[in-house]
Amino acid sequence: MSKATARTYTWLYRDSTDDAGDTWLEVAFVRGLSPDEALARVAPEKELYASPAAGGTVVFFGGLSEHPHHLAGLLSAGTSAALVVVTVNDDRFSYYEDGRLVTGFSLFSYDLREGLAPDLLGPETEDLGLHLTGESIDFPRDYVTRALALADRVTGVRLSRR
Q: Which of 82, 127, 129 is closest to 108 using CA atoms?
């Protein structure tokens, strides 16, 4: 499978952006779980939808979930999960392994990352142009699709439009 690029997920970005230009996307790419297994791990949540994907499952939190970071931790138990949150209130990428945050950062402040191994994704974020800091002057317009491509790359889970 080729490496995901920003263009790989343009369709998902468009589907998650309203007529006012606001993006509402809270999604986790989860390696090696079926949709039923993923949803069973976060059973009390009602606003979830899970879609099968190559290599695992993609869980959509619907923008109404109160705790997507906590739920991504639950989803990653015994595996890995990458969470992309882009709403009017948040813009974040987080990568979890076995229930623990490995690395997480604001999509506009890579230099303020946190987690057990905050530098783990450095080469991939640089390749995708997400290595943004407060001093960056040219923020890419397609930062959402770049974050989705990063989730694909680090989990090995590829969601197709079909």
A: 129
